[in-house]
């Protein structure tokens, strides 16, 4: 039985890794504060604040695999100090945000990294975490760089915004789709690959990214399952930015929308992942899982990313007014059976 220590394990990805590891028959321990939630059944939770002295005392024993989910310098460094000598293998979860540029479609793991300037910045801290982990662990280290992660219970709402929005029907405000792409990896595929990297004692860096799909094809797939009468209202980048609509994620955003100069961010190579034994679910299969979860959680619920119903309605009104058209109907008043 493989002994796995997850530094984290109560957040979204950490819990998915933990649950998958238990299902595979591993002995799993999570070291975490427990503030993000509970651990899955079968996982031993050791509650500790990793910023406090003695936080690692209960887990300073031999591990077949340690999985580090944090990028905060203090946490990454303290874990290495306490546990590097006790781990047969170590997996660091990094990010494709470590790369200096997003201008080359199909870029792989050899692309240049950012120069670290400010450890308070997410990407800089990820690069720093990779560097210090590599220096301490050598060929015992696998660095996994996920791109956009999708799947049930995603707390970011970036991917799920669109399947949910299309299911509500009516006029939908969308960005221009030409030369834009969507690339995501299913959280279950990612968890399985992370555990595979540990079991095979992989070393080096791997971009954990899924299939890359043109944005217009993504919208076409979603529209095919949307209520009758669903229409797309396309706004230019300039129009959206002038009305304080944000790129990519967060409040008052159109998720997955990127500046045209950064669209290769969603076109990174997954060749190394596939060579290393990673499995990638078909895009349509992952989207179906997300949609099922969105229906369960509520298509009209408040979200961390995207436009609220009120914001979108106002923007559609402004857009229609500018085009000399009547205001669009309020999507909340559409009573088609598929929306209910």
Automatic annotation (TrEMBL):
One GO MF term attached to the UniProt entry: aldehyde dehydrogenase (NAD+) activity
Basic and acidic residues bias locations: 293-303, 330-340
UniProt xrefs under InterPro entries: Epimerase_deHydtase, NAD(P)-bd_dom_sf, NAD(P)-dependent_oxidoreduct
Region (Disordered): 293-340
Gene3D superfamilies xrefs: NAD(P)-binding Rossmann-like Domain (3.40.50.720)
Domain NAD-dependent epimerase/dehydratase intervals: 4-204
UniProt superkingdom: Bacteria
Cellular component, GO annotation: cytoplasm
Protein name: Nucleoside-diphosphate-sugar epimerase
